[in-house]
Amino acid sequence: MADFDPQPVALITPEGLPVDHPPFDVTLSSEELTELYEWMVVTRAVDAEFVNLQRQGQLALYPSCRGQEAAQVGCAAALRRDDWLFPQYRELGLFLMRGIPASAVGAVWRGTWHGGWGFPEHACAAMSIPIGTHALHAVGAAMAAPRLGEDSVTVAFIGDGATSEGDVHEALNFAAVKAAPCVFYIQNNQWAISVPLSEQTRAPSLAHKAVGYGMPGVRVDGNDVLACWAVTEQAAARARSGGGPTLIEAVTYRLAPHTTSDDPTRYRTQDEVDHWERLDPLPRYRRYLTHRGLWHEEVEDRARDRAARMCAELRDGVFDAPDVPPSELFAHVLHEPTKDLLEQSGQLLAELSRKE
Amino acid sequence: MAATMVEAINTALREAMAEDERVVVFGQDVARQGGVFRVTEGLAERFGPQRCFDTPLAESAIVGVALGMAMRGLRPVPEIQFDGFTYPALDQIVSHLAKYRNRTRGQLSVPVTLRVPSFGGIGAVEHHSESTETFWAHTAGLRVVTPATAADAHALLRQSIDCDDPVIFLEPKRRYWQSGDATAEVPTAGLGQALVRRSGTDVTVVAYGGTVGTALDAAETARREYGWELEVVDLRSLAPLDFPAIAASVSRTGRCVVLHEGPRTLGLGAEIAARVQEELFWDLEAPVLRVTGFDTPYPPARWEKAWLPGVDRLLDSIDRSFGYSHD
Ligand SMILES: Cc1ncc(C[n+]2csc(CCOP(=O)(O)OP(=O)(O)O)c2C)c(N)n1
Ligand SMILES: [Mg+2]
Fold first, then answer.
1. How many other C-beta atoms can be found within 10 angstroms of the C-beta atom of residue A145?
2. Structure confidence at residue A3 as a pLDDT band (50, 70, 90)
3. Coil, strand or helix: which one is A124?
4. Sign of CA dihedral B56, B60, B66, B69
5. Quick one: DSSP state of residue A249?
6. One digit per residue, pLDDT tens: chain B, 327 residues?
């Protein structure tokens, strides 16, 4: 097993200059490089629109991913469309890149339907609110792939807080023992609601834990989109070729409150937030592209147009959106509703029609 | 002193911690943040990190560690942040917390009071509105307690912490912000006892937690609109069940409707209906009826008001109960 390197992999300095970090390298075309930037801009804009819609009373709740765009976009861009994703709930960047409409994500936060709409058709599991539980599903899905004759890879997205759950421990161990083609991608955004990383673990880093499971662990600068791309690409290639799982710790920061209901001033200082604002992944990558001569107004305009279209799709899809027919509450309990369920559905419909 | 249920529970914790050094409070976000509902606000500041602390994000650990502390003589009052997140701790609760006394022939008590913000009605996302009481009530060795009012939350929590049995303390979130008199002399009762919240002669409505308020609202409407007098029994303790209190009421009214928001199948209503017909068959004017949530997962927030049993669904059943007669 390779020696563990505690220094986060970075391919862009905070000033936006390229830097080497062998053996990690980026093999992306100019178009692909600007595409990453566009997705980061789009993610931030759509995320802000979600927060707006919550403020307007259209959504019950929303967990913003502001600050984590590079970690999400870099990772998703390194995967194939048939690689399965097992998200927690804060992964807007992934969802959008996979082609899941923002409004389908909004269905969860509006309270229209649990788990969102149409995620599986994009090789993405439903969001998982019970923390850490889905890491096990990812292992199973990964183990299914070779049995189905596929060479797809499965990625579990977990938070720093999630690493404390028993299920995550079991998932890491199981995946290692079975050499499952699975990547565990931790977005270490430093906080689990009000609990800081220092109260989740005394390990020198989350990536260190990989050693104990017998798999490679990689720490990556989660605010460096290219580094996130490169480590994911390597981990996915390794898994795809039968080399087993990898644990990636993307070191980043949740710039926003935990959710729209949270008041972070109760537990963290403005100084800390300001520090991380200065490490914002968006301007950093823009500086890099500028340095490479790849950034120009056109890129920005294209990103803004795409963001505007997605924000419009989100608004149209959730603003005063109709509720699902109440019969649906009974329709999907089992593969076909029982007589009892149909009767209960009838009871609810009768109650509702009397109220009209 | 008027207080919300949140404040009443906070006061109960504060008093118990001040009176007994063995009482410790811990869970996710309970110290630095004072709890996501502010229930544990100020306890870490007042009692220090030995007595009130945040834990890693690990429910099985929270319960298992509490059990170990209790074995050694502490009186832990851990919190699980939401009903739906007790499930990762199911093994610790069912295999150990519930059975330790029995397995040690009574040598060891594990007086853990596990507080769980519970039930629906606040428009939350999935896994945050579960009715878990049946799982615990079905598990021998646990007490299951749920308050309906701020004052009772205070009284019941103090009694639970004092009790030598493990207690699953289910706090109805939708009553968290309702005010009541937390300290005045209100009729209260011991742990394990039910209370009649409103006397009536026609139908006994058995309710608990968040549905007691619904039953009382329905009783008001029933009197005003139909001239029916409902008697509302607040169970307070779901396990053990204060069956004598239910029986005393039903033998007077001859009719019984059980109200709870969890699904109907094998809910607490099933147990109560079975007991009533076993023991009060000749007193009954009508079958025992259940007014409950549906046999589906808890619905998305947009449908929860319609899904939850409210005043109308309860009055429908009471009307049905009157439809039965012996002649
Ligand atoms: C099993 C479980 N326990 C508790 C919670 C409540 N909860 C929701 S988010 C959260 C913190 C998660 O932190 P982390 O894994 O770091 O993800 P982040 O929110 O920072 O993205 C907690 C405790 C939950 N959803 N599931
Ligand atoms: Mg986190």
1. 21
2. low
3. strand
4. negative
5. E
6. 679 999 999 999 999 999 999 999 999 999 999 999 999 999 999 999 999 999 999 999 999 999 999 999 999 999 999 999 999 999 999 999 999 999 999 999 999 999 999 999 999 999 999 999 999 999 999 999 999 999 999 999 999 999 999 999 999 999 999 987 544 445 678 999 999 999 999 999 999 999 999 999 999 999 999 999 999 999 999 999 999 999 999 999 999 999 999 999 999 999 999 999 999 999 999 999 999 999 999 999 999 999 999 999 999 999 999 999 765
Q: For residues B163 and B108, give the distance between their C-alpha atoms in angstroms, rounded to a whole number.
A: 14
CA A222 to chain centre: 12
pLDDT value, residue B326: 60
In 3-state terms chain B splits into helix, strand, coil percentages (rounded to 5) of 40, 20, 40
Distance CA B57, CA B122 (A): 24
Nearest-CA distance from B170 to chain A in Å?
19
Structure tokens at A125: 């599991």
What ipTM was estimated for this complex?
A: 0.95
Rounded (5°) CA angle B157-B163-B166? 90
Q: Which residues of B50-87 are buried (b: 16+ CB within 10 A; e: fewer)?
A: ebbbbbbbbbbbbbbbbbebbeeebbbbbbbbbbbbbb
Would you list the DSSP string of B234-269? E-SEEETT-HHHHHHHHHHHS-EEEEEEEESTTSHH
CA atoms within 13 A on the CB side of A249: 26
Report the C-alpha gap between A250 and A229 in whole angstroms: 11
Q: What amino acid is encoded at B23 in this protein?
A: V
Q: Is A81 exposed, middle or buried (0-12, 13-18, 19+ CB in 10 A)?
A: exposed
Whether the pLDDT of residue A114 is over 60: the answer is yes
Closest residue by Cα to atom 13, ligand 1, is A192
Domain boundaries, chain A: 5-324, 326-356
Put simply, whether A112 touches B (Cβ < 8 Å) is yes
Q: Under an 8 A CB cutoff, do B294 and A133 touch?
A: no
CB B48: neighbour CB atoms within 10 A? 11
If contacts are CB pairs under 8 Å, which of residues 127-186 in chain A contact chain B? 129-133, 161-162, 164-167
The Cα-based distances of A111 to A63, A103, B173, B262 in angstroms read 14, 12, 18, 19
Domains in chain B, CATH or no CATH each: 5-175 (3.40.50.970), 192-322 (3.40.50.920)
For residues B316, B317, B318, B324, the Cα torsion angle rounded to the nearest 10 degrees is 120
**Is residue A253 a contact partner of residue A189, using CB atoms and an 8 Å limit?**
yes
Q: Chain A partners of B32 at a C-beta cutoff of 8 Å?
A: 194-195, 266-267
Contacts of A119 (CB under 8 A, 6+ apart): A95, A100, A104, A125, A126, A127
The answer to whether the CB of B143 falls within 8 A of the CB of B165 is yes
Rounded to whole angstroms, the Cα distance separating A155 from A87 reads 8
Residue B1 is predicted with a pLDDT of 62
| Residue B196 DSSP class | E
| Unique residue bearing structure tokens 């610790």 | B92
CB interface of A with B, residues 204-263, below 8 Å: none
Classify domain A5-324 at the CATH superfamily level.
Thiamin diphosphate (ThDP)-binding fold, Pyr/PP domains (3.40.50.970)
Average of per-residue pLDDT across A39-63: 98
CA-to-CA distance for B25 and A18, rounded, in angstroms? 50
Backbone angles phi, psi at A85, to 5 degrees: -110, 135
- Residue A195's φ and ψ, nearest 5 degrees, are -100, 120
Residue B170: φ, ψ to 5°? -95, 115
